[in-house]
Amino acid sequence: MKKLREATKEDQWAMQVFLRQANISTIGLEEKIEDYIILEEEETGICGTIGIEKVDKDGLLRSLVIGPSVKQMHLLQMFEHTQQHARRKELDRLFLVTNKNDYIQFFELLGFFPQEIHNVPKKITQSPHLKETLEQQTCTFMMCKL
Predict the structure, then answer these.
(1) Which of 38, 84, 101, 111 has the fewest CB atoms within 10 Å, i.e. the most exposed one?
(2) Residue 100 banded pLDDT, cuts 50, 70, 90
(3) Angle at 138 between CA 134 and CA 140, to 5 degrees
């Protein structure tokens, strides 16, 4: 059975292992661990993660990693939980960046819509995590109002 929860400092090592296996940067994980949502299975541990990097009243979604056992229903639950977490943190908007055009329609169903880069706050585009991603691939910015 899968369970969603907010990460704690005790999850740091397991999160680093999980993210590194997916070739995802763990830069800043330690400072932001409590803004990560974990999907875990009782027997095997972490099978999905998504984090929020707070930037003023906005948030940048990062480190979305899902294992092969994660179904679309679980992914929807992860996003709903993440949006609720962002509202509790009093964020106004969430941004994400995707390099997978196949996922754009899925993200639109969750309330995210494509944004031109000049409409994205500079503090978001200058995030060290995001800079690394943008250097590697052609990406689409998306935004959701909370």
Answers:
(1) 101
(2) confident
(3) 85
